[in-house]
Amino acid sequence: MVAAITSLFLCLAVQRFRLRAVAQYDGRRFHGVQKNVRTQDGAPLRTVLTLEQALWPALGRQVKIGVAGRTDAGVSAEGQVIIFDADTLDGEAACVSVDGSAVRVPDLAGALNAHLPADLQLKRVDVVPSRFDVVRCRWKRYRYRLASTRPSDD
Fold this sequence. Notes:
Layout: H1 2-10, E1 15-25, H2 47-59, E2 66-67, E3 77-88, E4 95-98, E5 101-104, H3 108-113, E6 120-128
Antiparallel strand pairs: 1-3, 1-6, 2-3, 4-5
């Protein structure tokens, strides 16, 4: 109980920080990354929208996700870089309140993954400068893997 109170006390000195996360997802259930595109089948499941909706209650505030690139429906990713801002502490004791408990930034991916579906998970999260922008970065690397077998008829 004392450790929990100490951790919560550390997070009372709030500052907003930019966080970079590396996400991986199985795209079979998703209709691309971007959240602003409509399709004929109604409201498709989007990777960014799923992240924002899951992280909002976990972090106790609305989260706006920035994404390094776009994907089409059914495309999976092993290292999609995303950014979002959260209220954290500065220094080595940097932590974020997740469900009211203080979580250190290096442990943040695991804590947030509990709120995400199994086919969309964060591999790691770290603090980056507030000016860091995934869209205007120096370079991006893409690796495409294509199946060498014919798809089944189901």
